[in-house]
Structures are given as structure tokens and as C-alpha cells.
Amino acid sequence: MNNQSSMFLLTIRGNLAAATLEKAREVHNLNAGTPANIAAAQSLGDISHLVYVPMPHEGHAPAKDAGELLIMDFWNNLDGLNTFFADPHVQEGGAMIFSQRDPVVWAPAQGFASFNIPAPFGKNERVVIVARGTVKSMAEAQKLHNSSITKTIGKARKLGMLSHEAYFRMAAPGTPEALEFFGVDVWTSAEGLGDFYSDEDFLAGFNEIFTAEAADSAWMHPQGNWVEW
Hints:
Layout: E1 8-16, H1 21-31, H2 35-43, E2 46-54, E3 68-75, H3 78-86, H4 88-97, E4 98-108, E5 115-116, E6 127-134, H5 138-159, E7 161-169, E8 180-187, H6 190-197, H7 200-206, E9 215-220
Antiparallel strand pairs: 1-3, 1-4, 2-3, 2-9, 4-7, 5-7, 6-8, 6-9, 7-8
């Protein structure tokens, strides 16, 4: 496990503007996925661009249209990120992809335990779980979080967890530190993650971190050829 990272995470979650997911794929690839736009983003520090749609599960009503999309970009240059998204053409492209969107930049949660373990051969399924909520205090959250991760990492790995990363929302210059937490877990097993997140050892540490119940959701790669890097 390590506690340091030089990457910043940009998440863009929103409702797709297209009537179908296939049409949304075409619009995405014609904007974010063109070679020129990829080269421009990468030249400014965009290391990775990944897309996800909600994972179907019991109790989840199917979307009547294209539904939601979650974009996760990893950047190593905040100035480059700001420059790229200040471009009117990039903003126009975003408006073509989403009818409504919530872009947030997250900084690595310093001192919070994280891990990234290679997947065993043949374990090719990928499910991303994100959790978002406001913590009571940074110091208390760090203590509870790290204790929970240390206690449950072996169990999580056996059930199919590959990685866990913790972030806090980037605060505007001159403002108090943000207390909005964002956790990202990657799994190889949808069945395993269900068992883990209902486990008492995990819930005992997780539930105490937040001022209210955190918003969590499960995501997977959409069907079709979505341009990623």
C-alpha cells in the first residue's frame, strides 16, 4: 500500500444528451476521441481517459434513454487541465455529449492508505465502485479509513478487489480545505463486491467516516468501441 500519488482525478458524471447509448458513443468518439483532441489533451497532461456506464443490478431501473456516463481522467498537470477545459471547442464538445454534467477535480488524499494489486490471469471483468460524501474531519477520517483498509484488504482481495484510491475535492485557492471525500475501488467480480460491501468489518469503519450516508454507485465499461487511453 502507498499513501502518495502525483495524479489528479477529473470526474465528469452526467446524463447523456443522445437518445441511445450507441449514438452517445458516436458523439463521444467524434469529440473526446478524435486524434487531434487526444493529442491536445495528452500534451497538457491528460494521462488517461476512461468511460463507464451504470452497472445493471437488482433494484436498478433501466434508463429510458441513453442514461448516465461517468468519465474518469487522470491528469498530472493542473494548469494543463484548466487550459484544456477553458477551450470553447472542448466546452462545446462536452455539451454535445452531456445534457447535464457535474465535473469535479479531486486531489489524492494525503496520508490515506491506497493499494493497486495486479489482476490474476483470466480475471478480466472490471467493475468500478465510487463513494462520495463529506467527512466529519480529515484527521478522524484518515484514522478510521486506514484502520478499515488494513483490516479488510485480505478479505477484499480474496473477493476480487484490485485497487482502492482515496481523494478529496480540490478546494479553491484561499478557501478552507475541502472535506468532500471520493473513493474509487476496482473489482474483478460483481458477486464478490456485493459480499464485501455488506460485510460488518467493512461497514463498521466506513459508516463512521461521513457526516451522512455516502453516495455510492457501481460502473462498468459500456458496450461498443468507446475511445479510451
